Amino acid sequence: MNFIGSNSRQSTAHKPASTRETLAARYSSVRRASETLCKPLAPDDYGLQAMPDVSPAKWHLAHTSWFFKTFLLNPFFPSYGRFHPQFEYLFNSYYQKIGAPFPRAQRGLLSRPTTEEIFRYRAQVDEAMEAMFASVAEALWPEIAARVTLGCAHEEQHQELLLTDIKYNFSINPLKPAYRDDLPAPNNGANMAMSWIEQPAGVQEIGHDGNGFGFDNESPRHRVLQKSYALASRLITNGEYLAFIEAGGYRRPEYWLADGWRAVSEQAWQAPLYWEKIDGRWSLFTLGGVRVLNENEPVSHVSFYEADAYARWAGKRLPTEAEWETIAKNRKVRGNLRESGFLHPAPLMDEVHPAQLFGDVWEWTCSAYAPYPGYRPSDGALGEYNGKFMINQLVLRGGSCVTPAEHVRASYRNFFYPADRWQFSGIRLADDR
Amino acid sequence: MNFIGSNSRQSTAHKPASTRETLAARYSSVRRASETLCKPLAPDDYGLQAMPDVSPAKWHLAHTSWFFKTFLLNPFFPSYGRFHPQFEYLFNSYYQKIGAPFPRAQRGLLSRPTTEEIFRYRAQVDEAMEAMFASVAEALWPEIAARVTLGCAHEEQHQELLLTDIKYNFSINPLKPAYRDDLPAPNNGANMAMSWIEQPAGVQEIGHDGNGFGFDNESPRHRVLQKSYALASRLITNGEYLAFIEAGGYRRPEYWLADGWRAVSEQAWQAPLYWEKIDGRWSLFTLGGVRVLNENEPVSHVSFYEADAYARWAGKRLPTEAEWETIAKNRKVRGNLRESGFLHPAPLMDEVHPAQLFGDVWEWTCSAYAPYPGYRPSDGALGEYNGKFMINQLVLRGGSCVTPAEHVRASYRNFFYPADRWQFSGIRLADDR
Amino acid sequence: MNFIGSNSRQSTAHKPASTRETLAARYSSVRRASETLCKPLAPDDYGLQAMPDVSPAKWHLAHTSWFFKTFLLNPFFPSYGRFHPQFEYLFNSYYQKIGAPFPRAQRGLLSRPTTEEIFRYRAQVDEAMEAMFASVAEALWPEIAARVTLGCAHEEQHQELLLTDIKYNFSINPLKPAYRDDLPAPNNGANMAMSWIEQPAGVQEIGHDGNGFGFDNESPRHRVLQKSYALASRLITNGEYLAFIEAGGYRRPEYWLADGWRAVSEQAWQAPLYWEKIDGRWSLFTLGGVRVLNENEPVSHVSFYEADAYARWAGKRLPTEAEWETIAKNRKVRGNLRESGFLHPAPLMDEVHPAQLFGDVWEWTCSAYAPYPGYRPSDGALGEYNGKFMINQLVLRGGSCVTPAEHVRASYRNFFYPADRWQFSGIRLADDR
Amino acid sequence: MNFIGSNSRQSTAHKPASTRETLAARYSSVRRASETLCKPLAPDDYGLQAMPDVSPAKWHLAHTSWFFKTFLLNPFFPSYGRFHPQFEYLFNSYYQKIGAPFPRAQRGLLSRPTTEEIFRYRAQVDEAMEAMFASVAEALWPEIAARVTLGCAHEEQHQELLLTDIKYNFSINPLKPAYRDDLPAPNNGANMAMSWIEQPAGVQEIGHDGNGFGFDNESPRHRVLQKSYALASRLITNGEYLAFIEAGGYRRPEYWLADGWRAVSEQAWQAPLYWEKIDGRWSLFTLGGVRVLNENEPVSHVSFYEADAYARWAGKRLPTEAEWETIAKNRKVRGNLRESGFLHPAPLMDEVHPAQLFGDVWEWTCSAYAPYPGYRPSDGALGEYNGKFMINQLVLRGGSCVTPAEHVRASYRNFFYPADRWQFSGIRLADDR
User: Fold this and answer.
1) pLDDT tens digits, residue range B82-141?
2) What is the CA radius of gyration of chain B?
3) CA distance C276 to chain D (A)
4) Taking the CB of residue A389, how many other CB atoms lie within 10 A of it?
């Protein structure tokens, strides 16, 4: 396994593994959080999959349990039996070394096992995990601790997907149901001027620094040579993006990459996902239902193609991931993350420079998602976690309003295809200097 | 509206309308039956739609209520309000005159309204219908009685679809869940010889005779000129169909219509739907789960293309719908219908001639589904009930093991596309004489 | 082989076979006609296939030769060798008993054999056919004569397709090339009133009467029982069809069969094929290039769905094929056929009743293309000629402006899918009486 | 315009423009070469387009003329008229600023203009270009020279495509025609051991150095920081690739990127494009027809996914484009390029280190095709030449056996999608040190 903390190839000092109590508590807390997120759902909502990219809520609940079952209980606590012989097949996401997975696009067609059975499966896995925490030999603990840590981070990723997938699933329903009707509305904010964080040319180190957990794709830490550049002090707002739309942004091919223009044409894009013009007024579908567009909120649910076209129209460009990390790496993780409770991007409240680096929306970079120099995935099925996706996708940075705060960091690399729009993804500009 | 009993264009005598009590009782009984059929479902099952041709159980429950709401309550009992302004859109199946319906292929994506809300919708419609029965003016009663009668027949059609759709939805789940695990298994039966019912040439009358309810597509009753022919005394069995498979039936284009051969090739058909070879032995997926193939059962879940290819391989042909009705029209409706409780075709128990005309499986005819001479659909949206589907489909006759006995009759015309296989559809041969 | 003249199952008297000289002359004349039709083509045009339904001109030239090679030379004149071992595969249209054919949709991808080689192939086949005519034993002559007669009719069918396919192939080119720029323009005609040919109820005989050649699908001649009806005295004109368009015909689902409405929606039909509104004025693409719409011409290039919708809008219906044939069977074949040289439907010039039964456009009937009672295709690959297409298509009657006069007759059954529009296909109404 | 030689943003010294005579001679030579390459074609071959990615030969001939017409004659020699008003639309490849281009996938459906007309169009453009060379004002010459130079490079790119497209177009024909039957066969070669070119860590300069012509995507020249690495001394051979196939390479997902494995599964890849097992022996389709596989030839027609999977199987990786260029930049362009006349990769003849850097096959790198730091496309339609394709593609280096020698250089960046296989594309390994 190749995530930091257990990766013997890392030169950075190895931190002592979490104590069993600490890790058991984190395990329990993460597991409960998944279930809490499902509280607002009706029984009917759990099985829904409105497009191949999203998964049903019940599948997320089952797959995250499958992960602990497959990578912890099976090798280290074999006395725990199989819940059902087919679960290993049904809830395998993409680990070919475990076996050919059930087709992703058909996850929504599995009414059985029922949601109730899946909650029982979760409970059974949790019970076994607790027994394992209490009883496993000390010699196995470091590897177990590393895998549990990974499993918790994995479940947090699925918590974010659970929310973005529910949002998408609900959005296609003409009733436009709200995931929660008690979401706090952020202050309206203000239209703050954009300024630029200047960075001189030079060599920078990027990648995970070995402190705490990191995914294998953040390593090895390595040096990059950069020209001088500037990074925007804040995210692009709905109001700014609206100016692009009104300037004919979606009708003028000159702002678009060729593949982006094809996406615009074939999918008839005219605005970000979830924007809808109702009686001449732009509104947004949110996890709290339909709301009138707030021009001071960061724009969200744009594809890379749209982010790139916006930047070209604005006479700027998107940052590379190294440029982003260079600015972010010495800054504290704070912002409109999941804990703020908005579950939606929020207007900027006060002038900080740079602002909104963490939270609100994942920020598209222009960097292809590729292995860092010297990267090698680990042996075994866990080596499939990140490495095999390093093609055709782009890196996003900084977390979003549905990312848990403890989950994200400056070296964190998220990745999606350039046409993807159902994540909370937005725009921060960069420029040459 | 153009079904018999209310259709002023029909020359047959108008039968007195049911008394209010009788019809109210029938209404209530049909409505309860739909709900009883859903009893074995888990909450997770109600929303499932595994292919565009099938509908979720909850949609069937809602749409049948919508029918009474739209065609009875709205015009005749307007004091009943709308349950939700969007239900008229969401649960309209195909009545363009009511408005553009919600896309059929996306019915499974509607987690809201929830199943619970749909049961409340049903209850509210039922309450209003009962109030209407009790209070409506006598002058309106004939039209109301005619529409309620149609609405009950309509709901019975959806009860059959509800079962065939659940069967399909469950079949694609690797867990192969049973709709019911308490279904009685029929006797094994015996391999009975086939004989032929001979019919001399001549003019026959077919179509609805005006006694009792009939759909508009069964009228007008009219005369047809037939050559002499013979109709098989019973249905083709699994064992007989297996001989066709083993003779290379699915690999030899000479038995197939050109469009049928394309279906075989493109969809990689190798046996009827729901047949699966497990460890060298043929098994069937049924509403009671997976069972070993019983060679004496009538073959089911074959397309018209397969029925036609089988007939050609056997040196016979399929009957026309008039040939079928000529033999059936003076015979009593009895057989393995829904009330027998098998919910599956059953082997022939004793020698009767002809046997299995009603129940077990719908019998493919070679007749294109077309209007009878002089047919005109009624004005208004109810005219869309049958008429607009009179193209590209073939007529099937006789009802199946999931058809209520009171629903079917000799003049009943069911219709499906030639490649459809998810209904209980089978084969009876005919031959020239 | 099951076409009339050689079919021993036919009860009609067998006519003496053509003399060798007569048939050799007909063979030669038909073969030359195919080549004459290609004269206006540029070398670039021969390979074009703009949609799967059409075939390249060079493929028609090759396939018609393949037909004589496969069904005459191979069995009866084996001294003639193979031109190229792969031609049997490449130019087989759909005869599965000969072998799996080259995929239809890819015919346009065969730049080799070149057109020049295909003309050489034709010449070689012709030479061998002539040698066979001169030398074959008398005992074989009846069978040979029957097959040559069929082969000539087959080649005439491909001559018609050659013209309709070129028309389609050229139509999608923005340059809108004319197949011929020297086509005579018919007189403008006049807007003649429609009257009705009345036919009382009764039994009629339809099907081929055994005089001269007929395809197997025209047999057996048989009796049909008809209600009284009326057939329109002439075809529907562009002007009449335009009124349907202007009445919102393509926007109002109530006129359409459900499958037809889906075709309208999915394919965005707004007018017949080849109609285009240029600067506010309707024009047509013809084999002579783009022309202004002539309102007195019969409407052409409509699908069955459009013909049926027009009839419903007009308060009428389409005739059955038996109704059409009953009126046509005692009438002379004359009209705007290929020999008139217009290669386009022509306005009605004088009042005849009924007019335009033959020529101008194939007339959609509402009859599904199905076997006549007692029909059996012949043994061998020639049995695939017609029989295996008897599903999903509708019968058209009467020939068109690109049908050779000697090719068509009252019992002739053409057939196409209900959405097909690239043939010269139009509308004649019928009505109940 | 942003290619080197005219780009004022380049800091490298501006070289004096070619003299008129020299450039006119180059123009003429390049133009003649396109026509020479078409000599082996039959008239039937010119219009063929067997998949959307390839273009017909006649389209290449027309589009390259359109390029000179649009970017030279229209602005600088307006007295030259339009050949046909629609040519500007039909032969625009992708320059949206010129207007929406004719759909790429339908280029093969344009039988008109005929090949003969296109040759006349070429001649007319050439005549006008010569007149322009002779008469244009000196002040315009630098810009004109720059554009002509670009146009010649552009036409050379299409010459390469013309050959790879013909190869693909012919490959799908069951007759397997040879483009030329007189191609020289290279010596069988020998199985030479692979060694490694070692490169220490450090900063390197890559990108066009300002000497001679370069495309805009090769600039700006810039510094990159590299770890130590090694580059393989030669290309991977068919024999080596065969070992990967025989080791189950196409059946084992662990060697593949996730998107690559999907391509393998969906497209049923089992070997490189053009490999076919005939009677148990591997053969290749080449521009000279079908040949037995030569194990010593470099493997070709592999996608990036296959190259990457091979490297993973071999325990190595693909080089970055900077790693490749670092080794290549001080080496002479020589190798099996178009001038060698093989039009096919050739076995290695003698031990050179590194060998085969130029020619034989384009070498897949693992670098996403992205703008170099500071890259900005030029204003105007010519800015669409390269920049808008900088997404979703990977860089290939070194030219192939169908690349003209004068066309390629160490800084040359070719780019294709990771699933593309119809180019001469192969594999050179790299490794960490």
Assistant:
1) 678 889 899 999 899 888 899 999 999 999 999 999 999 999 999 999 999 999 999 999
2) 22
3) 18
4) 18
Dist. CA C107–CA C104, nearest whole Å:
6
DSSP label at D73?
I
CA pair distance C307, C427, nearest whole angstrom:
6
Q: What's the average model confidence in pLDDT over A329-337? A: 95
B194, C85, D49, D50, D54 from D284: Cα distances, Å = 58, 21, 21, 19, 20
Three-state SS letters, chain B? CCCCCCCCCCCCCCCCCCCHHHHHHHHHHHHHHHHHHHCCCCHHHCCCCCCCCCCCHHHHHHHHHHHHHHHHHHHHCCCCCCCCCCHHHHCCCCCCCCCCCCCHHHHHHCCCCCHHHHHHHHHHHHHHHHHHHHHCCHHHHHHHHHHHHHHHHHHHHHHHHHHHHHHHHHHCCCCCCCCCCCCCCCCCCCCCCCCEEEECCEEEEECCCCCCCCCHHHCCCEEEEECCEEEECCCCEHHHHHHHHHCCCCCCHHHCCHHHHHHHHHHCCCCCCCEEEECCEEEEEECCEEEECCCCCECCCCCHHHHHHHHHHCCCECCCHHHHHHHHCCCCCCEECHHHCCCCCCCCCCCCCCCCCEECCEEEEEEECCCCCCCCCCCCHHHHCCHHHCCCCEEEECCCCCCCHHHCCCCCCEEECCCCCCCCEECCCEEEC
CA separation for the pair D100, D79 (Å, rounded): 25
Indicate the pLDDT class of residue D166, thresholds 50, 70 and 90.
very high
- What's the pLDDT score for residue D224? 98
CB contact under 8 A, D172 and C47: no
Q: Which residues pair with C225 in a beta bridge?
A: C203
* B44: closest CA of chain A, how far (Å): 5
Structure tokens at D139: 């002040």
Q: How far apart are CA A68 and CA A149, in angstroms?
A: 11
Quick check: A7 pLDDT over 60? no
- Find the CB nearest B258 among C94, C224, C368: C94
Residue D305: list chain A partners with CB under 8 A.
391
Question: Rounded to an integer, what distance in angstroms lies between the CA atom of residue B6 and that of residue B20?
Answer: 16
Rounded to an integer, what distance in angstroms lies between the CA atom of residue B376 and that of residue B166?
A: 34
Question: What is the tens place of the pLDDT at every residue in C90-109?
Answer: 999 999 988 889 999 999 99
pLDDT tens digit sequence for C270-300:
999 999 999 999 999 999 999 999 999 999 9
D391, two tokens: 């997404």
Query: Strand A425-426 to strand A362-368: parallel, antiparallel, or no bridges (unpaired)?
Result: parallel
- DSSP assignment of A134-170 equals HH--GGGHHHHHHHHHHHHHHHHHHHHHHHHHHHHHH
Name which of C96, C370, C418 is nearest B392 (Cβ-Cβ): C418
A391 and D259 within 8 Å at the Cβ level: the answer is: yes
3-state secondary structure of D104: helix
Measured between beta carbons, the chain B residues lying within 8 angstroms of A86 are 174-175
Within 87-116 of D, beta carbons closer than 8 Å to A belong to: 94, 96-97
Chain C residues closer than 8 Å to D44 by CB: 43, 46-47, 58, 111-112, 114-115
CA B393 to CA B381: how far, in whole Å?
Answer: 21
pLDDT, one tens digit per residue, over D225-269 is 999 999 999 999 999 999 999 999 999 999 999 999 999 999 999
d(CA A200, nearest CA chain B) in Å: 52
Instruction: Choose among A45, A86, A110: nearest Cβ to B111.
Output: A45
Helix, strand, or coil (residue C230) = strand
pLDDT digits (tens, 9 = 90+) for A67-112: 999 999 999 998 877 678 889 899 999 999 888 899 999 999 999 9
